[in-house]
């Protein structure tokens, strides 16, 4: 949510022209839709909602993948930052050039900085969430142990 | 690239004394929207296009090719650059350029040929131009019950190559009646005032949002073999974009 809010601000200020899911839809999705005009009609009319769903879905998958990383990696204080930068690099170095998006061809320093920034925020919050979850679990298990000891 | 390298050398030729019905049938079967009319006594060639067929359906007098074709067609040369050919076609508002050399017909170059070529050779070019910058927000709309004569007349009056048929239900998509539909109908029937356009809809189209890339619309038209894309947003149809609009915007 924080990442989406930051993305809204950077897009609203004109620092980012198209977000990654937006760019994929507007620059590349049309081809596969040619043979499916009804789907194209639906997507064109509901694109704002679909872009948000795609972005949140990508974020949720990224979060699930983060939880699967080895414990040794997760315990590093740079785990969140590194993961955020990693997810941004996946777009910059593989998705954008493979799909031939305009984003891979232009020199766009400010936009890249904004993308890197909001992905780092995403990673940091993921790591923070995980830490909070783990500490909550630790507190609960400590309480449980104390209760058991009293009995 | 020069016109000679891209033009279609297998041209469809019709005679001035042929009936419009025969000519329309031949054009429909070959899947082309233009046919060369051989000049009388070796004179300059003319051209019969789908637009002329639409004008005939709309009530223009005469049932033979000689009553409708363009006699003073613009003629290009094999050595013309694609840019020059495109400019001439966009300025003259026509889609087919006859290419001759020393008075002999060498081929026909169409807007579709140029758009397809520029898509292939300029892969990274002009990808940021949006459809809204080239589309026509003022489009022709007809009901499925409108007869072919009225549709053709309206298309000629408004100088458009397609009419929108609004969607009938909440989940159905709008359709499009194009010059090709009328061309096909002209090859089969003569009583156009008794045929509803809704019964003749065969044109394929697709839909896009106004902020999608113009390049994508061009790709859709080339791959899907159609001339128009319907532009929609959350409120419904906001415009129609034709292949000529794309070429005109690219030339700017």
What does this structure look like?
- The complex is a heterodimer of chains A (151) and B (252).
- Chain A contains eight helices and no strands.
- By secondary structure, chain A is mostly helical.
- The model of chain A has no long low-confidence stretch (mean pLDDT 82).
- The longest helix of chain A is centred in the last third of the chain and has 42 residues, at 109-150.
- Chain A has one domain (2-126).
- Chain B has 252 residues and is an alpha/beta fold.
- Chain B has two domains: 3-121, CBS-domain (Roll), CATH 3.10.580.10; 131-251, CBS-domain (Roll), CATH 3.10.580.10.
- Chain B is 33% helix and 19% strand.
- Chain B contains nine helices and eleven strands.
- In chain B, the strands form four sheets. A three-stranded mixed sheet of chain B has the order 1-2-3. Chain B has a three-stranded mixed sheet with strand order 4-5-6.
- In chain B, helix 3 (50-57) crosses helix 6 and helix 4 packs across helix 9 (243-251).
- The longest helix of chain B has 11 residues, at 20-30.
- Chain A binds chain B through residues 17, 25-31, 33-35, 37-38, 40-41, 44-48, 100, 102, 105, and chain B through 123-124, 127-128, 130, 173, 204-209, 211-213, 215-217, 219-220, 223-224, 230-234, 236.
